[in-house]
């Protein structure tokens, strides 16, 4: 039959471009949708939900440093002295850490329970550098230490330590004679203080330490000073305050 012959080869360039353009967009849309779905599954939801989920919240177990309840007057402490319009008062408690729940101890630090008093509604900036200690009239001035350093050495006199921690070597029978001690036996495994117990001690000390920062007076709390010697060897201590209110030195005889 006469006419235009049928062409069986590749389509011309125009048809090829039309085919490619129309097929590319559905593929790209499909790939984007798949990627979005994978991100949602991997990270648990839309981006704004992830930001909310990673925003740090307040730990309900955190105890703010509020200090101890101040005593009625500076004269209720063993010693007190003026620093301008502010009165610094203090008791020396040796290695004893008197918290509101009861007594703790530390062999590496000595403790002062201090009170800071002023006119009604007076405010004062308190800093850890405000206080230092001189022991037995010596030349060495001991700076106040943060409570975080004290935590490692804290003990509770009422804590019942496992008997295995108190035992010595393994006891054996010596053939009908009195029980003896095996000198070659290894010591029993030491059982540390449970984390939750030690953490409770830490929170007590953190809360009852003298607060720092701008505070409305009166304020009171614990001060810690590095000293590993026996408390019975301490004949006198001088608590020195040097801060925004002025300067004061309190002589305390234990």
Structural write-up:
The chain folds into two domains: 13-54; 74-161 and 195-252, Immunoglobulin-like (Sandwich). 24% of the residues lie in helices and 30% in strands. The chain is built from five helices and 15 strands. The strands form four sheets. The protein has an eight-stranded antiparallel beta sheet with strand order 1-2-5-13-8-7-14-15. The protein has a three-stranded antiparallel beta sheet with strand order 3-4-9, with helices on one face. A hairpin with a 7-residue loop joins β10 and β11. The longest helix has 31 residues, at 13-43. It is elongated and about 65 Å long.
Number of domains: 2
Q: What name does the CATH topology of the largest domain carry?
A: Immunoglobulin-like
**Tally of helical segments:** 5
Radius of gyration: 36 Å
Mean pLDDT: 78
Query: What structural class do helix, strand and pairing data support?
Result: alpha+beta
Strand runs, count: 15
CATH-level-2 architecture of the largest domain:
Sandwich
What are the segments in which pLDDT stays under 50 over at least 5 consecutive residues?
Answer: 1-23, 37-63
Helix content: 10-25%
Strand fraction equals: 25-35%
How can the largest sheet be summarized?
A: 8 strands, antiparallel
Q: State the strand order across the main sheet.
A: 1-2-5-13-8-7-14-15
* Dominant shape: elongated
SSE topology string: HHEEEEEEEEHEHEEHEEEE
């Amino acid at each position: 039959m006469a006419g235009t012959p049928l062409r069986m080869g590749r389509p011309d360039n125009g048809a090829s471009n039309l085919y490619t353009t129309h097929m590319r967009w559905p593929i790209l849309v499909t790939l984007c949708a798949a990627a979005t779905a994978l991100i949602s599954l991997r990270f648990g939801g839309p981006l704004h939900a992830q930001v909310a989920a990673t925003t740090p919240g307040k730990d309900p177990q955190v105890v703010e440093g509020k200090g101890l309840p101040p005593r009625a007057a500076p004269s209720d402490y063993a010693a007190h002295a003026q620093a301008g319009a502010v009165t610094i008062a203090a008791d020396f408690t040796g290695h004893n850490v008197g918290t509101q729940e009861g007594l703790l101890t530390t062999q590496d630090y000595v403790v002062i329970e201090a009170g800071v008093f002023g006119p009604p509604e007076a405010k004062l900036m308190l800093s850890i550098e405000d206080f230092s200690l001189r022991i037995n009239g010596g030349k060495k001035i001991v700076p106040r230490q943060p409570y975080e350093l004290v935590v490692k050495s804290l003990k509770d006199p009422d804590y019942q330590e496992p008997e295995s921690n108190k035992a010595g070597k393994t006891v054996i029978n010596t053939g009908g004679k009195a029980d003896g001690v095996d000198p070659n036996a290894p010591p029993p495994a030491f059982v540390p203080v449970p984390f939750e117990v030690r953490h409770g001690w830490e929170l007590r000390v953190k809360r009852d330490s003298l607060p720092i920062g701008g505070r409305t007076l009166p304020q009171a709390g614990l001060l810690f000073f590095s000293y590993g010697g026996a408390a019975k060897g301490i004949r006198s201590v001088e608590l020195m305050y040097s801060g925004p209110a002025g300067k004061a030195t309190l002589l305390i005889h234990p």
